[in-house]
Structures are given as structure tokens and as C-alpha cells.
Amino acid sequence: MPSPTLAVERLIRALEAVTRLAGAIAIGLTLLLILATCAVVVMRYFLATGSIALQESMSYMHGAIFMLGAAWTLRVGGHVRVDVFYRGASPRAQAWIDVAGGLLFLLPLCALIFWLSWDYVLSSWAIREKSNEGSGLPYVYLLKTLLLIMPATLMVQGVAEILKNLLFATGRGGAHVGEKVEPL
Amino acid sequence: MAEFIPLYMFAAVCLLLMLGYPVAFSLSGVALAFAAGGMVTGHFDMAFLHALPNRIYGTIINTTLIAVPLFVFMGVMLEKSKLAEDLLGNMSRLCGTLRGGLGISVILVGMLLAASTGIVGATVVTMGLMSLPSMLKQGYSPSLATGTICATGTLGQIIPPSIVLVLLGDILSTAYQQAQLKMGIFSPETVSIGDLFIAAIVPGLLLVLLYILYVYGYALLWPERAPRESRRIRAGELLPVLGPLLPPVLLIIAVLGSILSGAATPTEAAGVGAAGAMVLALAKRQLDFRRLREVMTSTTEVTSMVFMILIGAAVFSLVFRGFGGEELVASLFERIPGGVFGATLVVMLVIFFLGFILDFIEITFVVVPIVAPVLMAMGVDPVWLGIMIAVNLQTSFLTPPFGFALFYLRGVAPATVLTRDIYRGVLPFIAIQLALLAALALWPGLITWLPNLILH
Question: N or C end: fewer C-beta atoms under 10 angstroms in chain A?
């Protein structure tokens, strides 16, 4: 029978696979966003035309970058902290702070955003909400779905962080936040 | 007592932030705890939180904020392709024989770097790694060297195109419209990011000039603490030194110029700037697939970090408003003696001290939306207010013992540089910034003159 620690570590890996997928999409979109912006500029200043769909796609990409990238950023420790005391604390104390913060601050926030957004997103799906502009993109309901995906992925990574820090704080190994994460 | 709950909430956030859990989530977590307590005791109506999904969606479709990931990409690309390092090397060869020449070139390169990245931490760390060793090797006193680097690093806030000015511009324009609607003006004037960029030019350049004068004067008085290079540069060497300087400088000028002249929106300019930075890196043979992936990854991380704080701050401000925080702040402001001047002074002091624990982004998202509409309704000019906040925070980030810039530099400075040296080194620069702040308060024209000239 495998040890409980191993099972938890396997769970962490499974959760982080979700984060990785969302993060990879967000990261890829940064380059696409630049290309789209340049295309808009070229069309406007050199060809004197414009495409509302293309301009709207920039908002879609921009939104997806930070809504999908939030969980990845949590994983690599990229969300800023006030580290006046945190930095000087022992690694174990840091892990306990992250466990408490995750349980008391992060998970309730994700639950709230998910719960508040549920009806908002569903009613957009019900009418397959389109852009207000005639030639705009007809996928507003997909864009609004980010409001559910962001808290869901952030919660997945939040649970993974809590488990990692619990393993570390209780001396069962496991990597602490700020570990070297291989680039995507 | 219930009317003071918003203040307790603010105090609780400040305390709990010190624990070190990420700011975005601490802000919203504390607010939610208060909201839950308020609902149980009947002081808070859940309806206030129902605005949240629309707020977040509003951030997604805000076309101006698309400039944030694009500017971040441009800055990270310029930084990772080592353009800044070459700049510093060339500049110091050019100026090294002047009195205080190395210090002055650090200031000038720092200004360019600040203009391109706009992030205090990144600028201080990069400048610290690049220029501190060479300044110390040339015999600069540790306090002059570290003071110059810290002060230059904080220029990223004010020298456009800065990300913080983009965010501040967005918040200020909303606040300004609110204030005008409350005053019964139903066709409100607007503030744009371009206005803030233009307004930041004179104060920003003035600050750079004052820094340079200080370093030059210091080198005149104590030449042994800021020695110059003995080797003179020959005319034939000038071209290879100046040549590489041009492309990044031109890129920044082009990006700025197209925004300031109104030819392009900040988003368009940022997108072209990001592409331009890629081309420059490619031309320098500093761009391969791996580096591109690195830049894209850190762009995603910085962007997510910024917008999660925005969302956390939105939760905080909805709860703050639900507890009657806006009325409380307005009534407190009315009680401050000295009218507009007194209220502005108090806001500036509060922001200065908050700058010890919060970064520019958090203050922009949390504090500015609360205080700015009240001040503007009292007649304060929005652009002037924005620049004053920017210079004020810059000073705050330099001030021992909590200034952010000091921590960042301490992190990369060798152990031979004492923390005391850093503290002593920044004091004159703090004095310079306070003098500038006073000057901007006395002569608001320093801020408003250029925008009026260009826009009207």
C-alpha cells in the first residue's frame, strides 16, 4: 500500500497539471496579442481600414492572459507579498503562513468569485451573448466564462499550494513555494 | 461605532499584510471576513458584492489596460536582451572622464531603463547588478554609489511610458467622472493616460537634472569619493560607442512620441514597442526561442500579478463602500482644517506612509479610488494630483528603513556595502525629491504647463 505522503504528492502533481495547461495558454497568448496589436496598427495607419473583430480579439487575449495566468503565477510565487517580516521568517514559518493564507484568504475569495459569477455567466450562455457591435465577435459568453475558469484554476493551485506547504511544514518533505519551476 | 468599521478594516488589512501572504488575496480575504461579520450583525448588505463579476469583466474589456501586458513585454525584452548593460558600458566610457561621469551615466541609463521597464524592483535590481560593482571598483564611496542607484531606480514610476501611470490614469479618469457627476456636471471632462504622460515629463526631467547636479557637485567637493577615469576617449572611438546607444533610445522616443502626439493610443504604441524590442533583440542576436519563452512567461506572471491585485482591491473597495466608507472619508476630509490644502496634505502623508508597506499598484487600486473623488470634488486638478502621488510614492520607496528600493538593492549589493551606507546615500536624494514635491505644490504650472500647451 502506498504511503499517504506519496498519494498526496500524486494529487499535487495532478492539480498542477491543470495549472500548467492554463498557464501555457496564457503565455502563448502574450505573443499573439503583440501580433494582433501590430496588425491593427498596420491596418489602421497603412491600409486605412479596421476590423472590429480583430480589435475585440485583443480584449479576449488580454483577459485570458491574466485570468488563465493567475494560477500559474501563484505556483511560481509571482504574486507580490509585503515581505518585511516574511523574508526573515524561517522556511517552516513561511509555509504555515501560506497554509493559513490559502485557507482563510485565497479559497474563500475563489469560492465567492465563482459563486457570484455563476448566474452572470449562465445568463450570458443562455442567450449566446454576442458583441454589441454588428461586426464584432459573437463569443461574449465564452469570454465571460473566464470569470468561472479563473477562480476554479486558482482554487486548484491554491489547494496544491496548501498541500505542498503542509507537507513541508510537517517535515514530510515536499517542495516549498518559490521552488525552481521549470519554464513552460 | 459602526460608522468607523471601514477604518478598522483598513487597519486590519495593513496589519495582516505584514504577515507576508500575497497582497491581492490578503486584501480581499480581510474584506470578506469583515463582510461576513457585517452580514451576521446586519451592518453589511450582500448586494454590494454582486457588482463584482461586472467589475472583473469591465477590467477584461478595458481597452486601455491592454497596454499593461504589452509594456511589460517590451520592458522585459529590453532588459533580458542585455541592451541596458551595453548602454551603461558605452555611456560610462563616454562620460567616465568627466567629474562624477560614471555616476551621471548611471543616472542617464537608469532613466532610460526606467522609461522602458517602469517597474521599480526591476530597475533597482538591474542597475544594482550592472553598475554597483563598476562604481565601487572605480573608487566611488559606497553611499554615493548606492544612493544614486536607488534614486535612479525609482524614476520608473514617473518617467513615461510607465505602467504605473497607465494604471493611475485609468483610476483617475473614473474618479474624475464620479466627482464631476456628484457636482452636477453631466458632460464631464476626461483625463487620459496621454495627459499624465505629458504632465510627467517636466517633473521627471527636472528630477533627473537635479540628481545629475547633485552627483556633479559631490564630485567637485569630494573628488576622492567619486574619482574619474584617467584614460581619455579619442574621437575615433566615439562612433562605436554612440552607435549602439541609438536604437533603444529611438524605440523609446518613438513609443512616447506616438502617444504624446496623439497619433496612436497607448495600447497601439505599446504593441509596436513590444514588437520593436523583439526586433532590436533579434538584431543583437540576443533572441532565441528560449529567451522569447522566458520573456513571454514573465510577461504573463507580471500581468497576472497586477490584475489580481486589481481584483483583490475591487473586492476590498466594494466592501469598504458597503460599510459606508466613502461617506466616512468625505466627512473626515471636511473636518480637516485648512480646506483643500489641508486635505491634500493629509492624503499625501497617508500615501507616503502607506508606501512603506504597499507598492504603487496596490495604492493606486485601493487608496486612490477612495480619496481621489473627494479631493477632486474639492477642486483639485486630476492630472496634478496624479503626478503628486507618483512623486510622493517615489520618495516613500526611498525612505529608510522601509523603502522598497532599499530592500531591492540590499538584496543584490555585496556584503562589503553596509546597510548604513545605503541609508546615508539616499538621504540627499530624499531631500531633492521633497524639494521637488514642495515646488510642484507651490507652482502647479510645472505639471500643468506642458499638457495645456500641447493639448489646447
Answer: N
